[in-house]
Amino acid sequence: MTSLTTRWTEKLKELALYHGFMGVGIAKAERMDEEAKHLEEWLAKGYQGEMSYMANHFDMRVDPRKLVPGAKSVVSLLYNYFPKSDPLPLNPDASTTHTQPHATAQQPGTLKQSSNSQLTNDDSSFKISRYAYGEDYHKVVRRKLKELVAELKSEVGDFHGRVFVDSAPVMERDWAKRSGQGWIGKNTLLIHPKKGSYFFLAEIILDIELEYDHPIRDHCGTCTKCIDACPTEAISPEGYLLDGSKCISYLTIELKSKIPDEFKGKMEDWIFGCDICQEVCPWNRFSKPHEVKAFVMSHKLSDLKDSGFREITAEIFDIVFEKSAVKRTGYERLRRNIKFVSKGN
Questions:
Q1: CA distance 342 to 269
Q2: Do residues 52 and 121 both lie within one domain?
Q3: Taking the model in full, what pTM does it have?
């Protein structure tokens, strides 16, 4: 590597941290042969469920040079979303809540019903994944990426590249693994040994050669906490393989049709996403709260607990989730989820 390549690499990593990313690593842009084989096997098993898009643009998905012509480097970045606190009240009667391995354990956002709603003491305290507490991460992180790229160009000169935040056929976890940002755990999420797994993944694919990082070893060991805790048994007994069609996140977000009755009583009150396999992961004791204003739970959402969440109207949905990733699910599917997890239905 030349001294210029070293300088560009150092400047990129310096700017990434300056712009709020909690981690950054770089891998050589090339075809992912081993990962391509695993993806083919996963698709052949039908584990993608209704996510037919996972089979689309296969060549681009496994080779970034087909996605960004001339690509030489894939930059993987981590952006923290672990909340300082969960402002919604906990349900004292909830018997299925998983606690985090954290000295100041925080529970998932529990959308408790008001006393004047039609819900009884047997009704659910609804939960949404922590990543959806604030504004849509796609927009927030993309803005940060564009700021980073613009400043990098002013420092090292012009180059061609594209930014990605869960928005194109990019194998994010695999690239993050290759770039030394963690290992893919038994729950199939990327785990960083000092930061846990509560972070978004983003990429910059560029046409300049940089210094490449190296993968780190797997530290899951004999732990099976995520496998044991998954109420729908979406994770294989050995780990490292997820049946997406059984995952609560898939069932509440991606699935457009009726939720199969086989999952009745197994959703543990999650109505958008699920954090169970992260809550029980010992490595998340290293998670530190983010300082991103956009990711703080909005008052519109926290106040909803007092308006009878189960009776939410389309109008209120649009107001509350105007800037949220929850909007992706849509009003009708959120209502479907609420009804499905509510006791007595």
A1: 7
A2: no
A3: 0.89
Binding-site residues sit at 61, 166, 187, 190, 201, 220, 223, 226, 230, 247, 249, 256, 274-275, 277, 281
Structural domain of residue 116, as residue ranges? 109-135+221-341
DSSP assignments along 93-117, one per residue = T-SSPPPPSSTT----EEEPPPTTS
Strand 126-128 and strand 270-272: the pairing is parallel
* 97 in a structural domain: no
List pLDDT tens digits, range 270-304.
999 999 999 999 999 999 999 999 999 988 888 88
Tokens matching residue 83: 């909340």
**Number of separate domains in the chain:** 2
Evaluate whether residue 214 is within a structural domain: no
> Residue 309 has what pLDDT?
80
Whether residue 142 sits in one domain with residue 267: no
For 237-268, how does the pLDDT look when each residue is reduced to its tens digit (9 = 90+)?
A: 999 999 999 999 999 999 999 999 999 999 99
CA distance 230 to 275: 10
List, as residue ranges, the binding site for tRNA.
Answer: 256
Same domain, yes or no, for 239 and 154?
Answer: no
Pick from 281, 198, 187, 199: nearest CA to 243: 187
Residue numbers in the known binding site for cob(II)alamin are 61, 166, 187, 190, 201, 249, 274-275
- Band (pLDDT 50/70/90 cuts) for residue 109 is very low
Determine how many CB atoms are found less than 10 A away from the CB of residue 8.
Answer: 23
- What is the Cα gyration radius of the chain? 21
The residue with tokens 């979406």 is 234
Catalytic residue IDs: 166
